[in-house]
Design brief:
CATH topology of chain B: Purple Acid Phosphatase, chain A, domain 2
Largest interface: A-B, 28 and 76 residues
Helix content of chain B: 25-40%
Order of helices and strands of chain A: HHHE
Largest sheet of chain A: none
Oligomer: heterodimer
Order of helices and strands of chain B: HEHHEHEEEEEHEHEEEEEH
Number of helices of chain B: 7
Number of strands of chain A: 1
Strand order of the largest sheet of chain B: 5-6-8-9-11-10
Radius of gyration of chain A: 29 Å
Distance between the termini of chain A: 101 Å
Structural class of chain B: alpha/beta
Number of helices of chain A: 3
Shape of chain B: globular
Number of domains of chain B: 1
Strand content of chain A: 5-15%
Distance between the termini of chain B: 18 Å
Helix content of chain A: 25-40%
Chain lengths: 83, 256
């Protein structure tokens, strides 16, 4: 009986290994809907941060932020410059 | 205004940077046309120029709270103040802050008003201004968490801006007003860059910064751009202002 269980286990492990080896790289293992269920229930951020994986595959990585701020202050209702 | 619009469009067209257009308050009240239209000509012009946000200074409250809230409602940009509150329930009267996204970069902007703003007779029964430092400390962590860059729009004055930079870690840039300082070079306080661009609509300030991956600002550069007659009027903006001039043909004396 024990010998039969051991033999069955070896067959299943071997078959499982072969099946996994045939999967294409990057293919998710498991049911996608099950994966969705384990996501946190937090509402999605309106400004999601790109993941490192997405950045490395879809977009060139951002190394710096280049910003120009144009600004005014205390213009006191002047529609034309007062000078 | 029409020259400013030309310059803003020109910079937007030529720059490969993310461009923000901001105002630090004391903006909608003053000159005759602004007074006659209760700030409408200013707000409509700023919307047309693509402003992203402004904060509120004392003079912006001179038309009363209802008019201010009406102008904020009409604007295509955000009126921000984290410390201008309803005197009765201490709730913010305007959005305290916003987070904009441009090219995948999250830009947090927080507005702050000078404490004296609530002393105006026209609003004093409705409005209170809570301590700016206390209010910034309340809202800054939330904005910081959601932003790659944090800009404070301040109508506190440059000395208070330096103090704010020292005691409220997490700010990257302060765009200031009230002291009417024409800062030809950026003020640096710790890791914070402080800028301000004069008064009276005579200048457009420009701050170019690069933030590295650690969030540190490198190479801040300031330009103070005089809006002199050598700059052509933007025809659409000029037409907009002229339409207000036609609507209010007899200007009253400027009230300052």
């Amino acid at each position: 009986m024990n010998m039969r269980r051991i033999a069955l286990g070896i067959v299943l492990i071997t078959f499982g290994g072969l099946a996994a080896a045939c999967m294409p790289d990057g293919q998710p293992v498991g049911n996608p809907s099950a994966e969705t269920r384990v996501l946190p229930k937090k509402a999605p951020s309106p400004m999601p941060v790109p993941s490192a994986r997405a950045a490395s595959t879809a977009l060139p990585p951002r190394t710096v932020i280049e910003l120009a701020i144009l600004h005014t202050n205390d213009s006191q209702g002047f529609v034309d410059p007062c000078g | 205004m029409a020259r400013r619009a030309t310059k803003i469009d020109e910079i937007r067209a030529e720059s490969e940077r993310i461009v923000l257009v901001l105002d630090s308050g004391d903006t909608i009240f003053g000159q005759a046309l602004a007074v006659q239209s209760q700030g409408q000509v200013i707000v409509e012009s700023m919307s047309a120029m693509g402003y992203d946000a402004m904060t509120v200074g004392q003079s912006d409250l001179r038309f009363g709270l209802d008019v201010l809230l009406q102008r904020a409602e009409e604007a295509d940009f955000a009126f921000l103040s984290c410390n201008l509150v309803n005197r009765a329930n201490r709730q913010c009267l305007l959005d305290p802050c916003i987070v904009l996204e441009r090219d995948g970069v999250r830009l947090g902007i927080l507005g702050v008003t000078e404490p004296e703003a609530a002393s105006l007779a026209v609003v004093t029964e409705q409005v209170a201004v809570i301590d700016p430092i206390e209010a910034v400390r309340e809202y800054l962590p939330g904005v910081r968490e959601r932003s790659d860059v944090v800009v404070v729009l301040s109508h506190l004055g440059v000395d208070e801006d330096r103090h704010l930079a020292r005691v409220c870690p997490g700010i990257d840039i302060i765009v200031g007003g009230r002291s009417r300082s024409l800062l030809a070079e950026p003020e640096i306080e710790g890791n914070v860059v402080i800028v301000q661009a004069g008064y009276g609509g005579e200048w457009l300030g420009r701050l170019d910064v690069t933030l590295d991956l650690t969030g540190h600002i490198r190479d801040p550069r300031v330009q103070i751009i005089p809006l002199g007659p050598e700059i052509a009027d933007d025809p659409e903006l000029k037409a907009l202002v002229d339409s207000y001039r036609a609507k209010f043909p007899t200007p009253t004396r400027a009230t300052r």
